[in-house]
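Quick start: load a record and inspect it. Here is 3'(2'),5-bisphosphonucleoside 3'(2')-phosphohydrolase:
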Amino acid sequence: MTPSDHQTAAQLATEAGELLLQVRARDFADATARKAAGDAEAHRLLLDRLAALHPDDAVLSEEGADDPIRLVSRRVWIVDPLDGTREFSELDRADWAVHVALWERGELTAGAVALPAEGTTLSTVDVAETPSRSDGPMRLAVSRSRPPALVADLATQLGAELVAMGSAGVKAMSVVRGDTDAYVHGGGQYEWDSAAPVAVARAAGLHTSRLDGSPLRYNRPDPYLPDLLICRPELADRLLTALSPR
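Running the structure step on this input writes:
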């Protein structure tokens, strides 16, 4: 039986994550060498597997040269072989991820985010609906190393708590799993940073948009995608209103 695109995304993200765990366990001269090996080997695995499974599809990867053929392709896989390289290089941390998404005729149609250090992959195959929100202040996922000032200002405005963590995929999945209420990012990203997390978040019933409420668009000529909101749908209007210029 030919696997569905959802299953392919989940399987490839999981396989790349398993490889990264093997790479991480090796001895390296320093963290820089560990990061480079992880990026390169996971990238090669994903490209090889996609070439074997879907030779006619294009690929946009953080670690590969941008091939303009993707702009005229019907199907484009958007991948981040290792999201959160800093955390990957710190052996006591689990907040790094692998992203695999499929864009098809203008929309994200499948995606998976592997959290290899947790032994977990969340995907559009079977992601559960986000659990009900508990009482208390709103919780905003934020970068542990580069928290945007706008998120700190937003937290002050809303009386929200900031929850620091690494990878963009980990932050997005924290909303999917109900550990936080929103992931607000305004410090600049690329399509591979958010494509798979957004696909999974949508499958879980979450709101996804730009910070001005406009739709997220993928497979654009310039893959830079500067801002992002992933949140519980019941909080979207409140957050978008708070984020609106005054």
